[in-house]
From TrEMBL:
PANTHER family: CARBONIC ANHYDRASE, CARBONIC ANHYDRASE XA-RELATED. Reversible hydration of carbon dioxide. It comes from Centaurea solstitialis. SUPFAM superfamilies: Carbonic anhydrase. This is Carbonic anhydrase.
Length: 218
């Protein structure tokens, strides 16, 4: 859980007007200095004309495993409690850890920001990190969020067990993706994170978006 523990236990803000906002992250704690000094920081604006498309080597090998729905204040998170499979990229297996949403999106494409962004977080046995980013536009309901709606409405600090679920139900992986080396988008902003941002956007209903926003302290 290295990817998310710092973000869930230590306070930081998202607004630039906040004394603990993104522009100040690097000075809040010594171990967060990469947020200010890093050279491969995420999120980024993706320039489609400069992107080079190649056959994608990402293979999803997810499987059902016990999971829990948790409100981490800055994100609604689904956290898998046992081996839930993962993804393979260039022969490296990255184990599924959790997924969470940001509203609006953190990444932009050709300067366009989207209504929401889902991050599916993975980590290899060698502690290499890989995140799949799925961008959302207002439209039809998202089935994965739909299955969580009733639970999000009553979600408390203790979280809610979801039983055995698979990330295959998210249906985020696409045939054409943008890939780059970046960082965690929250403190400590560690770099050498392999990002896969899907080119195809997914719809999310307006009421689902409001549900996610209403549950957060962002």
């Amino acid at each position: 859980m290295t990817i998310y523990l710092t973000a869930q236990t230590l306070h930081f803000g998202y607004s630039e007007q906040d004394p603990s906002g993104p522009g100040k992250w690097g000075s809040l704690r010594p171990e967060w200095k990469t947020c200010s000094t890093g050279k491969q920081q995420s999120p980024i604006d993706i320039n489609v004309k400069q992107a080079k498309f190649q056959p994608d080597e990402l293979k999803a090998v997810y499987k059902h495993a016990p999971a829990k729905l948790v409100n981490r204040d800055h994100a609604i998170s689904v956290e898998w409690l046992e081996d839930a499979g993962g993804i393979e990229i260039k022969g490296v297996l990255y184990n599924l850890i959790q997924c969470h949403w940001h509203t609006p999106s953190e990444h932009t494409i050709d300067g366009v920001r989207f209504d929401a962004e889902l991050h599916i977080v993975h980590k290899s046995d060698a502690n290499q990190k890989a995140v799949i980013s799925c961008l959302h536009k207002i439209g039809e309901s998202d089935p994965f969020i739909g299955n969580l709606t009733d639970k999000i409405k009553v979600l408390g600090p203790e979280g809610i067990d979801l039983g055995r679920i698979s990330a295959n139900s998210i249906k985020c992986v696409s045939k054409r993706n943008f890939r780059y080396m970046g960082s965690l988008t929250t403190p400590p902003c560690d770099e050498e994170v392999l990002w896969t941002v899907t080119e195809k956007t997914r719809p999310v209903a307006a009421d689902q978006l409001q549900l996610l926003k209403g549950a957060l302290k962002e």
